Amino acid sequence: MIESQLTWKFSRAFWIANVVELFERAAYYGMFIALVIFLTEIVGFSDIEAGWIGGVFAALLYFGPIFNGALADQIGFRKALLMAFVFLTTGYFLLGAIPTKLFSLLSLFFIIIGGSFVKPVIAATVAKTTDHLNRARGYSLFYQMVNIGSFAGKTIAKPLRTELGLEYINYYAAAMALIALLIVFIFYHGIPSSMEKKNFREIREGFKQVLRNVRFMMLILIVAGFWLIQGQLYATIPKYTLRMVGTQAAPEWYANVNPLIVIFLVVPITHIFRKFSSVTSIGIALAIIPISAFCISMSPLLEKIIGLNVTVFGFFKLHSITIMMILGISLQGLAECFLSPRYYEFASKQAPTGREGLYLGYAHLHTFFAWLFGFILSGYLLDAYCPDPSKFLNSEQLYSYQKSGVALRSLLTPEQFQQWYGQAHYIWYYFAGIGVAVFMLSLIYRWRIDYLDRKKQSH
Hints:
Growth Hormone, Chain: A; 2 strands; mainly alpha; single chain; 459 residues; globular; 2 domains
């Protein structure tokens, strides 16, 4: 039942959908933070191959909802979710149980199918179980569930990786997806699909219309540059951390700094800067993001100043790379607080009158481009500057590195480590450079649209 006044009380269907979202996100982010490591260390793909596979996988996962959302309208939300979680449970389980190259690709395909149904159906359920007065509150709770699921998944991924093995992260994800399947089967009933069902021809025509809007596509590509750098939480940081710090390090937990920053700061930052235009807020985010990559690149300088490790408050030690990585990830989270709440507001203003819904539906394409190119670039950069240790370690050394937690630096002579990993921080120069280029493009973009808008008003 939808309330007719401003309230935090929502229907049973609303809460069921949000709980389902929490379990789905916990499964996905637990698997995703370790995906490129799993593809390389367990399945046997190279860094470059893992980059291509991870990029295509993540990109299709964000592109699929455009079409699977329409299919969910046709078959009904409940059937769509049941089918989705059958695919997800199967995909995650097979990924852990049969880690061959062929079956890993098949498993990821199953996860793409399932995941691209969940996103539009849960979002639509939230919309249908709230009214215009309470929709903002409803979606704020929805995004909190997303962040809680993300935090939980990445938190548990670290002990599973170090204590049991990478395969068990996928078993955990399968268990989370199975719980979500049972919740949908038992509790999720009576949510009607859209009254205005779109066929695939209409979707295709809408997609063509969006692609022809140069102003809108430029906005998507510029913001994609931001998420390309942000996406290195999953593409580069896991392997980079384990190879440079050691397998007992916790890139999964470092990545959790990002959602923590967003959870605590996004509301106050949005409120404080509410009088700034949306394009200014986006510009601030684009100015911060290259600094975040540059901070991570500065770990060799910090090492020269404080040494390899520093004791914090006399209780525990942090590697110099860990310190700069946490600082860089914190800046990424801060930048996201400026970007995320204002991007869709600005994107809606670029749409022709009456087509706002269509354009907002495609506004998430920035993630498609960011994940695709970000992961692929990461694979090549890792191969060049922070290569797979299996290329030069013997079997005994590789076991010590992967299973016993011996730091890679300890297994190599100083000369060998310098030869193979001495320039690993160069990776972050590339991403900092991309960030600077994107920021400059955003300034040009703003100048151009301001010019065109003034010219239009003068006529």
